[in-house]
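call fold(seq) -> tokens
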Amino acid sequence: MTLRDVWMVTIAINVVIFRENTHFEDVAVATVGGVGEDVVVWGVDTFLATPPPPLHYTLITHRHRRANEDLCVAFVLLDDLEAVGETLVVAQRGGWYEGAVRLVLAYVGGPANDLLTRTAQHNILGSSYNTVVTGWLPSTTPSSHRTYPLLTPCSYCRQGQPQVTLADLWHPNKGQVNETHLYPDSFKNFHGHTFQIATLEYAPFSCYDIRPPHEGTDQADDAENPVRLEVKGPELRLKDCIDTRLLKVLAAALNFTYVVWEPRDKMWGALLSNGTYTGVIGAVQKYAADFSLNVAMTGERERAIDYTIGYFSDPLTFCTTRPRPLNQALALIKPFQPSVWGGFALALIVVGPLYYLTCTPCFNSSPLTLTSALLDIYGACLTQSRRWVPSLGSRVVVATWMMFSLVTMTSYVAMLTASFTLPTLSPTLNSLEELVESDFSWGIQNLGAADHDLLKHSKVPLYQEVYRGLDQCPDLDSCLTRARDTKYAFITWRLYMEDRIAIKFTSSTGEPQLHVATQDFFPSEIGWAMNPGCPFRHKFNNQIRRLLEAGLISKWLQQIIHDPKRRETDDPQESLLPKASLALGLNQLQGVFYVLFIGCAAAVSIFGLEACWSRSQVS
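ret:
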């Protein structure tokens, strides 16, 4: 029996693992000879105790005819039926040749009269995949050869449950009797299997309501998985969001059902000192859940779990209180820069005496005084009509001054009107550098999510300073409310933040109540977390890739974000900016009142001084 007959595919690497000091050693020697190619040979105990090598160590590109990956690896396991399961788990789900298609042939010796029943009852082999289990059946006559049954487990073929079938027989003289393909694609149809999915709310990707206890699934289904009983929280009823639509498409295409639940600790996944994760990532890592909905992809997490391909990139950013109008006390002088005001005052001082000089030769009676000339020139700026002196020189001065006044005062009025309509706002923060140098505090919602871990483990000095100053807040709405009302910057994922601001923190006129920084940092792909070594990940990737190429995920995102039914309109906050339909108030006109009061105070003071001077002259 040659392995080429069994695989029926091109194999890049052959790995033979046998139980030492048993009759399987002789089988291993014969197997190595039958491979006819380079082969790696391991003893079982040594294989289980040895950490897997890096993938590049054995990166040979032979493409499997139905795989997305480039590497196809064949494992031959030679051990007793009771002991072969542990080796099978490490070979298929461990770090050995991670990312490759791993085909397994498990030879368990014989006699194998009840091998089908024993394999079906085996807690690992019975639900394995890409595996052929074989042993020997005794010959019926002294002159005949042994026969080898070829059993193929299928994880989901019996109405979504595991099933072991006799795929074919192998005879030393005839070879494979029926020439059945021993490694069929068992993941193109899950036959109604119910997957366990862990998630947390992350709009607009995952949205849900908590199911009442009486609507949940039978807890007896979870009794077989003690880890799931430990970490599983309430079951969920999904609402219309991106992952809900994506999940429905995959479920229809691959024929499976699902149960979605929250982890009890309500965490995304914080790395513990023992190398395990909490929350959603921990549930997937420990096989309590089959996969999750959206999670951020990080290098640390990828060492513990697998991911689907990413279908959206969402960076970190922060939001602060909306810029507020500055004090309008200086609104009267704001339209012009100081240099313009200085030039205007100088022109007034120069043109007044010049007009006086050009008018002096024309007066025979009631001569024009210098003070009167200055007041006439100043009055012309305020569009006050005057009787000008009819001399040629004075007319040239007045005509020039009128043109100057027209342009200057028109510009002033236009700028003053604009400042009342769109008042100057306080400066905004748009980068982390500006944030750490400001008097704002900042914080994050610590749910064991990737944003907290990225800041915590970063070696960049700026990010380290941000992490040291983190002031955590309990939930999303509380964080946004605090950022709106105080000098507090809330750091989180951009789309997650902007979606919630659009739903709840936007005024009835459509103005957001918070300012979102323009700078992004730590861009991260969003995908689904899957069990380590998940064999059907490529099926999910194919479906997600088709949706991306068709533009459906982008279309769904726009539909959900702009859905008016998601808007929460209870007690909407009014805009911080004055409305165009409102009358001007003291905040806008306080400057002119200050001028009036100062002028009146100056007039009263001058009047008092003049009265005192007159009395002193009379006395």
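The two ends are 140 Å apart (CA to CA).
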